[in-house]
Amino acid sequence: xxxxxxxxxxxxxxxxxxxxxxxxxxxxxxxxxxxxxxxxxxxxxxxxxxxxxxxxxxxxxxxxxxxxxxxxxxxxxxxxxxxxxxxxxxxxxxxxxxxxxxxxxxxxxxxxxxxxxxxxxxxxxxxxxxxxxxxxxxxxxxxxxxxxxxxxxxxxxxxxxxxxxxxxxxxxxxxxxxxxxxxxxxxxxxxxxxxxxxxxxxxxxxxxxxxxxxxxxxxxxxxxxxxxxxxxxxxxxxxxxxxxxxxxxxxxxxxxxxxxxxxxxxxxxxxxxxxxxxxxxxxxxxxxxxxxxxxxxxxxxxxxxxxxxxxxxxxxxxxxxxxxxxxxxxxxxxxxxxxxxxxxxxxxxxxxxxxxxxxxxxxxxxxxxxxxxxxxxxxxxxxxxxxxxxxxxxxxx
Length: 397
Known about the structure:
The protein is α/β, with parallel strands linked by helices and about 400 residues long. It contains 16 helices and 12 strands. Strands 1, 2, 3, 4, 5, 6, 7, 8, 9, 10, 11 and 12 form a 12-stranded mixed sheet that branches. Strand 1, helix 4 and strand 2 form a beta-alpha-beta unit. The longest helix is centred in the C-terminal third of the chain and has 19 residues. It is elongated, with a radius of gyration of 23 Å.
């Protein structure tokens, strides 16, 4: 096609998609209308609309953008481009920065993300969903293959952070109860990324102060020590465990560094609480590591009352997108078997799609939901101010 013909095609496309050239639509009307219309469209019709958007965007010199707190969104984007011929520009954004960035871009009507893969459901609810900055879209695939609880907001995957022992030299700690992590002799032997720099870690600690988890911790205390817990200054057993755990912990800068430190031969007998998927890293000596949940399985028991925690990554559309059908197609890709492949190839990532299994050597999602602390954004937001100050006080000790 010569330049003159290309110009005519672009002119026609730009006439059709004039909304895409006037800057971001801060009302969200274009994206919301497209989501509503897509409910009565086939996959093929959405794909055709997306390719029209992509062609118009190319003429105007813009590109479809996706942000993710997981770096593997870049690999998912490559497979999306290979399948549909639509380019994607991905940006890996830290958990501590993503919502500030999105508020500035969406609230300021600045060119930014079309689709976002993000964590921390509590902040997501207040800053993004309640404000309408991010919109939920449920592809037909997810409607058919997901549990209802994973649809709104749409969960792309679950990740887990596990209590993991260094068993080098056969030195598996005889720990089957989380209160043992708080005993004086464990000081300096338990490693955790600071909850001040990792919000999902903070959310985990907040969840433990909830009535349900406080009750479980009180029971676990009695099971271990044979007597009722004495709370003293603490509101419930959850507050007491959090205080004693934080006082025992050594804090790392990142889960990668924690995993590397815990896995060394010199760290035999030490314990970490970090992302299970870090065991895929070549710098981590996985032969020295054993999750508490697996160790408990071998002893025909369970780590009481939890073996770590689990949190979701959500995938949503920016209300300011000028490429809503491309956004919907990309979201569908991320929850499909092909789109999930970059995460499925290692331990510690779990799709809510019933047709997608787990990596060899891992446990299914249902197993982890039964033995891990799950996020409840409603409780976290309700208790945040009180527990945040409490956590900060004990981190500094």
